Amino acid sequence: MSIQTVINSQSHAGLDMLEQTIARCPESVWTDTAPKNKTWHIAYHALFYVHLYLQPTEADFVPWAKHRENYNTMGGRLSYPPFAEVVMDRPYRQAEMLDYLALCRAEVDKQTAQMDLDAPSGFDWLPFGKLELQFYSLRHLMMHIGEIADRLGSQGIDVDWRGQKGDG
Questions:
Q1: For 129, phi and psi rounded to 5 degrees?
Q2: Cβ–Cβ < 8 Å for 159, 24
Q3: Which helix (DSSP H) or strand (DSSP E) does residue 52 occupy?
Q4: What digits encode the pLDDT tens for the residues 129-161?
């Protein structure tokens, strides 16, 4: 089994878990304005970076057709100059996130099949190789799935574990 096959399988398993958090999320949790980082925003942020980090380089990235400028930013402020506040006043609907998730699944299949794991990350802010980038990206995805799953758990809603592609 190749490492690309493993990356593909684990990426799909992570996306399966994110799909559950999106699909099972009650509207009241999805659009709750109390948390600093809204549930819909965490889902979008996670998908944006899955999509981005699958690309060979930053220059190769073509944002999702429904991308809204700077909505990928967490914390409400740009983390780079001009460090401006980002207003995110138009929540993505769950159906939109499920559509974006389907695009990310297709990108996983397309990009992992041709990924040069010995290449640089392709992103100047991540000074390591493409293989490490895939581990980094999976950790990032799972962190945000955990955030949403915790919110769902407080509502008595479980998220099923996926060990690899095709589980469940």
A1: -85, 175
A2: yes
A3: helix 39-53
A4: 999 999 999 999 999 999 999 999 999 999 999
Residue 146's CB is within 10 A of a number of other CB atoms, namely: 14
CB neighbour list of residue 8: distance below 8 Å, 6 or more residues apart: 108, 109, 112, 113, 165
With vertex at residue 146, the alpha carbon angle to CA 141 and CA 147, rounded to the nearest 5 degrees, is 100
Q: In this structure, what are the phi and psi dihedrals at residue 29, rounded to the nearest 5 degrees?
A: -80, -40
- Structure confidence at residue 83 as a pLDDT band (50, 70, 90): confident
Contact 53, 133 (CB under 8 A): yes
Residue 113 has pLDDT above 80, yes or no: yes
The DSSP secondary-structure symbol of 60 reads G
CATH 2.40.160.20 given to domain 3-153:
no
Q: Domain locations in the chain? A: 3-153
CA distance 1 to 70: 38
